[in-house]
Amino acid sequence: MDKIIKKLQAQGVDTDRLRPSSFRYIVEGILEDQFSVEKTGYPTIIFGESMGFEEVAPGKWEVFEGSDEPGPLDMHLYKVLVLKDKSGKIKLFGVHSRDFVYSWRDEGIPEDTYFAGEKWIAERYWHPEGDDVLVMVELPVNAVVETADNEYKTIRIVEPDEFAMKFL
Asked: Which domain holds residue 139?
């Protein structure tokens, strides 16, 4: 457990927020001796409140269990582990009402707006009886969190000058 805590601290994680209870600490200490990454070759896995993170290569973390409602610890881990070295844009697709999408031009894309990494996933949310439109957006990587496999939501307001949008 100490090795894992030191590794996480070196990567900027506030480990005081992660401290397990005494009983769990004892059990995990015993299990670490028997099943350490060095002995088993398995990656480090850590859980926040509702999300899971996996170290897939030394210092490279990914979300393996997303959440529609990540908590403060989830967001802390996501920002310091997954987003720490990422920059640039991510191309996503969304189905939203026409008026809502048009409002983005002036107000930006609000926090908690959902998108998908693939067009066909976004199309599953189409409501034929409404005024939905399908859009492709390019957003800053640090503006979204993965909520499920290839599905995302914004974690802050994305200002109009930060994204590009195309109606499909």
From this structure: 89-167
Residues, the chain, total? 168
Q: What is the DSSP track for 21-42?
A: PHHHHHHHHHHHHHH-HHHH-P
CATH code, domain carrying 95: 3.20.170
Backbone angles phi, psi at 29, to 5 degrees: -65, -40
pLDDT digits (tens, 9 = 90+) for 152-163: 999 999 999 999
Q: How many CA atoms lie within 13 A of 102 on its CB side?
A: 5
Task: Please choose, from the candidates 106, 57, 100, 47, the residue with its C-alpha nearest in 3D space to the C-alpha of residue 77.
Answer: 47
| Cα atoms found within 13 Å of the Cα of residue 65, Cβ hemisphere only | 11
- Taking 60 as the threshold, does the pLDDT of residue 35 lie above it? no
As given in the structure block, the two tokens for residue 112 are 């908690």
Q: pTM of the predicted model, to two decimals?
A: 0.69
Quick check: helix, strand or coil at residue 49?
coil
Q: Where does the pLDDT of residue 83 fall: very low under 50, low under 70, confident under 90, or very high at 90 and above? A: confident
Do 75 and 135 lie in a common domain? no
